[in-house]
Specification:
By secondary structure, this protein is mostly helical. It has helices at residues 3-24, 32-40, 46-53, 58-75, 100-115, 123-131, 137-144, 149-161, and strands at residues 29-30, 97-98.
Length: 165
């Protein structure tokens, strides 16, 4: 995979996919959950297939995030059904910026890429970065969804080693 292809992967996931997901949610920042949503929507890629096999197509990711939000609010004594709430009105003029959880995710993706013998970050490396998330919304959502993060991470590592997107 060429450097421009790897750059295209990062750009397509972050700038196009995750930014659009953040915009749809009315978020001013691109957080890790939007990267996960974007990865799940990368049609025809090994990364999207791995996520779908774990029950995490785009709708599955969204459902897990909604359940995480409901459970987090329940801890504070607030009971809601996220599916009953109106969705945010997207602001087409807003350009969400990269959030802190995405900065940490990208650092983990770069570390994974280095550990696996290459400096290029692919969608598979970003998935590894997502799966290595601890104590954040994404990790709680994956736990709620019953995802075996260790097993999925092992598959993502194999995919990255094969150079798959």
């Amino acid at each position: 995979m060429s450097g421009s292809t790897a750059a295209k992967d990062v750009r397509s996931v972050l700038v196009r996919g995750a930014r659009e997901e953040a915009r749809l949610d009315g978020s001013p920042t691109i957080e890790a959950e939007y990267v996960l949503l974007a990865l799940s929507a990368l049609e025809g890629t090994a990364t999207a297939r791995l996520l779908a096999a774990a029950g995490l197509n785009r709708d599955g990711v969204r459902a897990a995030l909604d359940r995480e939000w409901e459970q987090s609010l329940a801890v504070a004594g607030v009971r809601i059904d996220a599916g009953q709430l109106p969705r945010a009105t997207p602001d087409p003029t807003r350009t969400p910026r990269i959030g802190e959880s995405t900065v940490r995710l990208l650092q983990r993706a770069m570390d994974a890429s280095s550990e696996l013998g290459g400096g290029r970050i692919t969608a598979a490396h970003m998935l590894i970065g997502v799966l290595d998330t601890k104590l954040e919304r994404v990790s709680r959502a994956l736990d709620i969804a019953g995802v075996d993060r260790a097993a999925l991470r092992a598959l993502a590592v194999e995919s990255a080693q094969r150079g798959e997107r």
